[in-house]
Amino acid sequence: MKPLPIDDVLPELLAALRTNSSVVLKAPTGAGKTTRVPPAIFAAGMAGEGNVVMLEPRRIAARATARRIAFEQGTPLGREVGYRVRFDEQVSSATRIMVVTDGILLRKLQSDPFLEGLSVVIFDEFHERNLNCDLALGMVRRVQQTVRPDLKIVVMSATFDCQPIAKFLGDCPIIESQGRLFPVDIRYLKFRDRQPIQELAVAGIEQMLELTSGDVLVFLPGVPEIHRTSRELESLARRHDLIVMPLFGDLPAEEQDRVLSPCSQRKVVLAPNVAETSITIDGITRVVDTGLAKVMRFDPDAGLDHLDLSPIS
What's the whole-number mean pLDDT along residues 284-292? Predict the structure, then answer.
């Protein structure tokens, strides 16, 4: 395995976890925390006879993370390393490191309030907080405080204020890792007022194709915009011999795997912000960001959550 920045702080993290029930790890994107921390904890013997469970906020990230950890550990997916998400799982009786979504962990807490068989619970990408994730952390902390003082909790994030979480976890230690910086050339595309998102995205893609021979990742607000952009790209794709690949949570697992795998043909990946964290798409050298996302907001008048199309950059 190639060295990653997180490797430098793994001894400090393991030492802190041996003497404390909880640890907060702050490490920037690309440091390697998602794929290196769970196997390091397991290899150090901290799971004992139990399992290490890591929570990922999205199904795509959970599947991709488990696949990557299994690859780095040299084991088939579903044996020592597996995942469990809604409607899909690859686990076995030999699985000791499992990547799950917040919904799966909450259902586990309902059916097994003592979390028997679990020794370490890791919350990854905690800065992407949502109600389920906060609820899961609160419930796991309550289990730790009442009936499972042996249970270990690790909260990991790239960008958030660690102090409140560390205080919530009993003033636990905070470990910080350095990341890696790469030169980035940022260009801004001129656009007309009320120009359709798909037209803006295609203009950006066409510009990127002239600058590089690598693959292009395009961030779009949601699935409808992805489909519209895909249709708008048909002519450009034929001219440049491109393969256009959507990537979103409800996509069948085999199609998600195809997007994340190396491809001999030049590809353009259309995705919402699910592709910003926890997953790596080999071959990407250019990114087109529309600067828009569908953000979940609570409407106090209606008493319901709803998605707002909002500028995010």
Answer: 91
- CATH topology agreement for domains 5-176 and 197-295: yes
- Is the domain spanning 197-295 CATH 1.10.3720.10? The answer is no
* 144-155 confidence digits (pLDDT tens): 999 999 999 999
SS (H, E, C) the chain: CCCCHHHHCHHHHHHHHHHCCEEEEECCCCCCHHHHHHHHHHHCCCCCCCEEEEEECCHHHHHHHHHHHHHHHCCCECCCEEEEECCEEECCCCCCEEEEEHHHHHHHHHHCCCCCCEEEEEECCCCCCCHHHHHHHHHHHHHHHHCCCCCEEEEEECCCCHHHHHHHCCCCCEEECCCCCCCCCCCCCCCCCCCCHHHHHHHHHHHHHHHCCCEEEEECCCHHHHHHHHHHCHHHHHHHCCEEEECCCCCCHHHHHHHHCCCCCCEEEEECHHHHCCCCCCCEEEEEECCEEEEEEEECCCCEEEEEEEECC
Q: How confident is the model at residue 306 (pLDDT cuts 50, 70, 90)?
A: confident
- Structurally, what CATH architecture does the domain formed by 5-176 represent? 3-Layer(aba) Sandwich (3.40)
